[in-house]
Amino acid sequence: MFSSAPARVDLESFELPAPAANQIAVRNTRTHVSGGSESNFLRFGPLSYGLKDNNPRTNIGYMGVGTVTAVGRDVQGFAVGDRVTTCSNHASHALIDITPTTMIEHVPDGVNDDDAGFVFLAGVALHAVRRAQLQIGQ
């Protein structure tokens, strides 16, 4: 899914290639729209999303939940069938580069996909608390 103009979202089909050595393929079951950055992009265009080139065709999204469907040969710690949260665009499937800084987490048993998708939003809120040097409960 991408946006080609403010207040417009387009869908397109794509072929997902096999994962490279350091990638996993994920079939998304949920993706979340950010109430801030993505909503501003859809209302006001690429510059509000922080894009310098004002490119109107931009893949949007950065929070997803899904199941690993394939694993690159050098990937460790992830296997086909694992449920994960990722920073991926709104799409049915995504290739995720596995690096030391990749934002990806295993979803624990007992946590449903709807709830798991909010892990990165909670991280943003906690980051704001830490940056403000507040303590939980203040």
Please describe what this structure looks like.
- The strands form two sheets. This protein has a five-stranded antiparallel β-sheet.
- The mean pLDDT is 82.
- The termini are far apart.
- The chain has helices at 37-44, 113-116, 119-131, and strands spanning 2-5, 8-10, 23-31, 58-59, 64-71, 83-86, 93-97, 104-106.
- The radius of gyration is 16 Å and the shape is globular.
- It is built from three helices and eight strands, in the order βββαβββββαα.
- By secondary structure, the chain is α+β, with helices and mostly antiparallel strands.
- β1 and β2 (8-10) form a beta hairpin.
- Helices cover 18% and strands 28% of the residues.
Please give the structural blueprint.
Elements: E1 2-5, E2 8-10, E3 23-31, H1 37-44, E4 58-59, E5 64-71, E6 83-86, E7 93-97, E8 104-106, H2 113-116, H3 119-131
Antiparallel strand pairs: 1-2, 1-4, 3-5, 3-7, 5-6, 6-8
Q: Uncertain regions: pLDDT < 50 for 5+ in a row?
A: none
Structural class, from secondary structure content? alpha+beta
State which percent range the strand residues make up.
25-35%
Q: Tell me, rounded to a whole number, the average pLDDT.
A: 82
What string, H for helix and E for strand, traces the elements in order?
Answer: EEEHEEEEEHH
Rg over CA atoms: 16 Å
Overall strand count? 8
Order of strands in the sheet with most strands: 7-3-5-6-8
Number of helices: 3
Distance between the termini: 40 Å
Characterize the main sheet: 5 strands, antiparallel
The backbone outline, from C-alpha atoms, is globular
Helix fraction by DSSP (H/I, runs of at least 4): 10-25%
